[in-house]
């Protein structure tokens, strides 16, 4: 299985931003990921 590109801390930070109400498009742009990756 392929290793993740992001550390667990980075994933947690991205998810926390989503829970705080930051728009998904903005989170994805800052993190450099697609919206599909965010929702997976």
Structural features, described:
- With 40 residues, this protein is an all-alpha fold.
- The chain has one domain.
- The protein contains three helices and no strands.
Q: What attributes characterize this protein structure?
A:
Transposase, mainly alpha, single chain, 62% helix, 0% strand
β-strand percent reads under 5%
Task: Summarize the amount of helix as a percent range.
Answer: 55-70%
Distance between termini?
16 Å
Order of helices and strands: HHH
C-alpha-based Rg, rounded:
10 Å
The poorly predicted ranges are none
Give the biggest beta sheet.
none
What's the number of helices?
3
Mean pLDDT: 87
Query: Helix/strand/pairing class, anyone?
Result: mainly alpha
Secondary structure tally: strands: 0
The rough form would be described as globular
* Total number of domains: 1
Give a short overview.
This protein has 40 residues and is mostly helical. It is 62% helix and 0% strand.
Task: Describe the SSE topology.
Elements: H1 8-19, H2 24-31, H3 35-39
